[in-house]
C-alpha cells in the first residue's frame, strides 16, 4: 500500500495504491493521515489504484470525512474500481461520500 499526497491548486489530492486492509490501515493512519487534512479546503481521494478496502480501510475514510467536515472543507472520492465501489455500496458508505468517476 502506498499513499501519495499532492497539492493541485486549492485541492489536496490523495492517491491510494494497493490494498487498504487490516494489515495496511494502521500504517496508513500513522504515516499518512496527519497530512491528509487540508484546513478549510478541498480534498480528493483518487481510488483508481485502490485494489481492495476492508472495514479497517473504511474506518480511515470515515476519519478523513470527519476531519474535512470539521474544517468546513469538502471531500470527494474518484475513480473507484468496481470491487471497491461494491464494498462502499454494500456497507452504505456510498451514501456518506461524494463518489465520482475518474476524469
From TrEMBL:
Residue ranges of every copy of the STAS domain listed in the record: 1-103
Molecular function in Gene Ontology: anti-sigma factor antagonist activity
Signal peptide residue numbers: none
SUPFAM superfamilies the UniProt entry points to: SpoIIaa-like (SSF52091)
InterPro entries: Anti-sigma_ant, STAS_dom, STAS_dom_sf
PANTHER family for the chain: ANTI-SIGMA FACTOR ANTAGONIST TM_1081-RELATED-RELATED
Family to which the UniProt record says this protein belongs: Belongs to the anti-sigma-factor antagonist family.
Protein name, per record: Anti-sigma factor antagonist
Amino acid at each position: 500500500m502506498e499513499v501519495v499526497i499532492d497539492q493541485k491548486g486549492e485541492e489536496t489530492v490523495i492517491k491510494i495504491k494497493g490494498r487498504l486492509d487490516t494489515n495496511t490501515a494502521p500504517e496508513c493512519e500513522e504515516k499518512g493521515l496527519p497530512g491528509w487534512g487540508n484546513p478549510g479546503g478541498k480534498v480528493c481521494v483518487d481510488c483508481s489504484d485502490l485494489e481492495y478496502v476492508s472495514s479497517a480501510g473504511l474506518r480511515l475514510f470515515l476519519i478523513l470525512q470527519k476531519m474535512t467536515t470539521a474544517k468546513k472543507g469538502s471531500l470527494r472520492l474518484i475513480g473507484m474500481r468496481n470491487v471497491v465501489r461494491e464494498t462502499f455500496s454494500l456497507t452504505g458508505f456510498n451514501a456518506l461520500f461524494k463518489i465520482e468517476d475518474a476524469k
